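User: Here's a chain of 168 residues. Predict its fold as tokens.
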Amino acid sequence: MEAEMQTAVIVRPVRDVDAEALGRVHATCWHETYDHLVSKAALEKISPKRLAELWVNWAVQGPEFKMFAALVDGEVVGFSGSGPARDKDAPRLRELYFIYLLGKYHGTGIGQQLFDAVLGRDEPAYLWVADDNPRAHRFYTRNGFSLDGATHTEPFLGETLTEVRFVR
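Assistant: Prediction complete.
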């Protein structure tokens, strides 16, 4: 079964026409990822339409940004993005902004394909991830990243989320 699914996977650059599907997947992934970290009320504020509007802008960034979508049988199931560091004290010049993949595709290798699409094999980079996200921590560790001890608290859907920094 898994091998069959892999043949139908396409990872390609994000296009502006993907915005609506990306907004939908983004919202679903936030529910799946953060349901134990923020309140149900906060998660109910997520608007696929608003996230789609963000994707319209992200899809047309310059060449220093890499934004990719994963499609299974023509449907967007995940996405990833990297670009120039956004932090003043950034430990690397490149930042992995996000990788989100619908939960039912975890463990299929699609997350790795999304990761590989936006970062070179040993490319130095850093990223922020929720402190309480052990699956993501294992994934980034497998890909050569390690915690550097930096943490911060981010506003997230009207609440706060503690994030830790991984560096490679």
